[in-house]
Protein: NAD(P)/FAD-dependent oxidoreductase
Organism: Flavobacterium stagni
Amino acid sequence: MFDVLIIGGGVSGISCALVLGSAGTKPFAATKKIGVFTHQKASSLQDAVFNNAYGIPAGKLGSELLTESTSQLAALYPQVIQLPDIKILRIEGEYPHFTLFANDGTTYEAQNVVIAIGAGNPFTIAGLEEYVMPHQKANPAKNRLQLRNSDHLVKPGIYVSGTLAGWRSQLPIAAGSGASVATDILTAWNGGEPVQIHDSTRVKP
Ligand SMILES: Cc1cc2nc3c(=O)[nH]c(=O)nc-3n(C[C@H](O)[C@H](O)[C@H](O)COP(=O)(O)OP(=O)(O)OC[C@H]3O[C@@H](n4cnc5c(N)ncnc54)[C@H](O)[C@@H]3O)c2cc1C
């Protein structure tokens, strides 16, 4: 049983995984089992080039980010389990016990799930149809979709991040959305006391 499974290893999914991983030394997160499905074929990053994303060197290819971000996650936070090349087709259950059904016939159990698969149409994960709606901030001509949510929460235990949460398609917005979901989950694990995870060059007295 995973404490949280992230579906989607693009911008918002890996951003969420990095922040969750970076909390690994905190007592409230140390024993949590975290996983991320890094099925990358449908990522917006495949064809993108970035010149306007804060902190990212101009000319950076999205295809490079796909491999560099998962490598960074593996190197810094190896306790976050990466599940490559697996596509999730269906979700069943209610909080705190969801079952995820994958395209290779395997199943996964999780207490919390983050859906980070982008705003493409059709929505490809069965079991959440009642939350699918037209994207409210994308050009209607593009027929993008989002999941109905309140501050990323779709229903107890199910979070959505990135463009699928209704945000416009810009890398920093998607990354911030994934980080926001991570800190919400960490805050819940910390008994409701707000959490942020910072590293610093300053030496603590
Ligand atoms: C051509 C192009 C150029 C762009 N240029 C810029 C730019 O210059 N500046 C900028 O700020 N933004 C740019 N963007 C936008 C930016 O890339 C997106 O906003 C961002 O990637 C959205 O992040 P996300 O997490 O919502 O989705 P994504 O990054 O697309 O991640 C979704 C992930 O979910 C996976 N997935 C999908 N379905 C499943 C499933 N059923 N099971 C498991 N995994 C699944 C996908 O393979 C992918 O890895 C560009 C986008 C494109 C397409």
Remarks:
- The two ends are 40 Å apart (CA to CA).
- The CA atoms of residues 28 and 190 lie 6 Å apart.
- The first strand starts at residue 2 and ends at 7.
- Residues 7-13, 37, 39-45, 47-48, 50, 52-53, 62, 87-88, 116-118, 124-125, 162-164, 169-171, 174 surround flavin-adenine dinucleotide (CB under 6 Å).
